[in-house]
Design a protein that fits this description.
The chain is an all-alpha fold and about 675 residues long. The chain has helices spanning about 50-55, 70-85, 85-95, 100-105, 110-140, 140-160, 165-190, 195-225, 230-250, 260-265, 270-295, 300-320, 335-365, 370-395, 400-415, 430-455, 460-490, 495, 500-520, 635-645, 645-660; strands spanning about 5, 10-15, 35, 545, 550, 620. α5 runs antiparallel to α6 (about 140-160). It holds the Pfam family MFS_1.
């Protein structure tokens, strides 16, 4: 994606508005148009930034990234990332079609059976933000390989679990493993692809990963169980993860780690990590154990209260800690907050039904694991088709419309499940329900991730991390709530005589989740993604006052965009799933919107410099995101004049500044 630089003017006046002006060559909107300078431009410092950045990010954003030697290697890379992000649903596919067999073999209660799947989601969601941070400490590729190996080992260990408690704990570790691999996988993909249709296609493939992962897990598990027993299924997935490790070694590019490892470890939010893990674990435990030991039991009440208190303490701590695990400033973007809530409750409906449908087939319809897996297969085929359609729609329809389509699909599919009876034909209700609900999973995943990548590039690491965390935690919270409904209903007179009745009540929970997710959509303002836009409107407000030698503040209204609040954050991005704006530049070296009124982030020693009112502003660049702007502080004149006289030398210098994070180019 080309970046445009303004000509050098010692005291520059700017007419550019908040909407960025890239992608406008076809509209004859050229760099420097609409600018006035009080002093002559020094011609020797007219730098071809577009050509220079093309050397770094590639001249054609739709071309295959240079990381991959051929299309086959690129496809393997995308598949590896897709399965890394879908590892949670892959493991759930392995376990849910065997829940009855596992429960019978290990003499498990209903809550212990639920914890097989819930502990995977709990372990993944609780540790997602933590491992988003550690990807910067150890490097994305190194962490991904470690996580794949970790999953392979614990999958093998699960095959030899002696009792219910051991299996639930091991499944929790498997959830931790999925949290290890997801952040570096997504970060590497966004860093490898610039904004454009090719990135949209890759992101769409991630959307298809959840249904594909579930069916691959269930099919492999069903085959292994039929040949031997449920323990063989964990041996099969152990082999799968070791194969994925080899694929990652081959295809994953090694993008340089950014930041100081020692400083990151010092500033890491250890207390916040403990609070969030403990709070969510206690809250989920209270929901799942309530039906077994009673909702009025002291153990249930104390566990529930402690869980809520720990989560409240986490929210308080994140507001006062200098380097929070979850930066509260991310919620200032109203669109993003609504997007997270909508996708979380929608996915909560989807994933809980994914648990109860196979269990219904086992407990009520008495189907074999392989038969269940074959009945779930159409969902992955539909998921692939809807993913392709979603990729095409994001460039043609507003994101809010696509989110609404996904939400309605979640609700429609959940309602159809209510009408299923033991004698009901598979094709009448279950088949259309699975084909329809996967629309929501695909469409909302694509829109949410593209919104973060495009509208919040300086916050894309944190934004994507929160979305992934919401997905994972929705598994444990959703299963906890529906298990409480199922267990309570099962103890009633009707529930003990009608095996279908408790499942109907669990499905009602899924309907409630889907309906609740629709409430957030009318308030969203998400436009088309990855499409060209009109040249930005202009303003006559000066960027720099030559008389006072100070930058002039601008009102937020002059930079108001269609995406929401212009003041998303007053400091650099904290988490690091991977920036979509540049080659993995997770840190913003000065405040977003830093020349406007608002809080100023004062860096501590060792942190990156920020832009203040007295900084010399020589350039303004329209970066590839259509909503964010950065002021480029170029190298000192002497460095350019004496060391880098030609464009080729400048390119090398600029490349070093971008990757090293020095005080030159941002």
């Amino acid at each position: 994606m080309p970046l445009y630089a303004r000509e050098r003017a010692p005291y520059l006046y700017s007419n550019v508005s908040g909407r960025s002006a890239i992608r406008n060559r076809q509209q004859n909107w050229t760099p420097g148009s609409g600018l006035t300078s009080k002093y002559p431009v020094q011609s020797k410092l007219r730098l071809n930034v577009e050509a220079t950045m093309n050397e770094i990010v590639g001249e054609d954003p739709e071309a295959r990234p240079d990381y991959f030697k051929n299309n086959f290697e690129e496809v393997v890379f995308v598949f590896t990332v897709m399965m890394a992000t879908a590892a949670t649903t892959f493991l759930q596919g392995v376990t849910v079609i065997n829940t009855a067999a596992i429960g019978k073999s290990l003499d498990m209660t209903a809550s212990q059976i639920t914890w097989i799947a819930a502990s995977i989601g709990l372990g993944s969601g609780s540790f997602m933000l933590l491992f988003g941070k550690t990807a910067d400490l150890f490097g994305r590729k190194a962490q991904l390989l470690l996580g794949m190996t970790f999953l392979g080992f614990f999958s093998l260990l699960a095959a030899f679990a002696p009792n219910a408690m051991a299996l639930d704990i091991i499944c929790g570790f498997l959830g931790v493993g999925t949290a290890i691999i997801s952040p570096p996988a997504i970060g590497t993909l966004f860093a490898a692809y610039p904004e454009g249709k090719r990135r949209n296609k890759a992101t769409g493939a991630l959307g298809a990963g959840n249904p594909l992962g579930f069916v691959l897990g269930s099919m492999s598990s069903g085959l292994a169980t039929r040949i031997w027993d449920w323990r063989a299924s964990f041996i099969v997935i152990s082999i799968f993860f070791f194969v994925m490790t080899a694929m990652a070694i081959w295809t994953m590019p090694s993008i340089p780690r950014i930041g100081n490892r020692r400083e990151m470890m010092k500033s890491f939010d250890y207390l916040g990590t403990v609070l969030t893990i403990t709070g969510v674990a206690l809250f989920s435990a209270a929901l799942t154990q309530g039906p077994d030991i009673g909702w009025r039991a002291p153990q249930t009440i104390i566990t529930l209260i402690l869980g809520v208190l720990f989560m409240c303490a986490f929210a308080w701590w994140e507001n006062i800690h200098a380097h929070p695990l979850l930066d509260p400033s991310v919620w200032k973007n109203t669109n993003y907050t609504l997007c997270v809530l909508c996708t979380m409750f929608g996915y909560m409906s989807f994933v809980t039904n994914q648990f109860w449908i196979p269990l219904y087939m086992q407990e009520v319809q008495r189907l074999s694991p392989l038969n269940i897996a074959s009945r779930m297969l159409p969902q992955v085929l539909a998921g692939l088709a809807w993913s392709y359609i979603g990729q095409a729609l994001v460039c043609r329809l507003p994101g809010r419309i696509i989110m609404a389509i996904g939400g309605i699909a979640y609700l429609t599919g959940a309602i159809l499940l209510i009408f299923i009876r033991p004698e009901t034909s598979y094709w009448k209700f279950l088949f259309p329900a699975m084909v329809i609900t996967v629309i929501g999973a695909d469409f909302q995943f694509i829109v949410a991730n593209l919104y973060v990548a495009k509208q919040m590039p300086s916050q894309s690491s944190l934004g994507a991390g929160v979305i992934q965390t919401a997905y994972r935690l929705s598994v444990s919270v959703g299963l906890g709530i529906t298990t409480a409904i199922y267990g309570t209903t099962q103890k009633t007179t009707l529930g003990s005589t009608d095996a279908t009745f408790p499942f109907e009540r669990a499905y009602l929970g899924g309907i409630a989740f889907a309906a609740f997710s629709l409430l957030f959509i009318p308030f969203m303002k998400i436009d088309k993604q990855g499409s060209g836009e009109q040249a930005p409107p202009t303003t006559s407000t000066t960027l720099f006052d030559s008389e006072t030698q100070e930058s002039l503040p601008r009102s937020a209204g002059e930079y108001r965009d269609d995406g929401g609040d212009p003041s998303l954050t007053s400091k650099a991005s904290q988490s690091t799933l991977g920036s979509a704006a540049t080659y993995g530049s997770e840190a913003t070296y000065f405040d977003r919107w830093s020349w406007e009124n608002g809080q100023v982030w004062t860096p501590t020693p060792g942190e990156h410099h920020h832009h203040d009112a007295t900084s010399e502003v020589l350039y303004e660049v329209c970066v590839k995101c259509l909503e964010e702007r950065r002021v480029i502080l170029p190298v000192r004149q002497s460095a350019v004049d004496t060391q880098y006289q030609n464009q080729a030398e400048l390119s090398g210098y600029m490349r070093n500044r971008v990757f090293e994070g020095g005080p030159g180019w941002v």
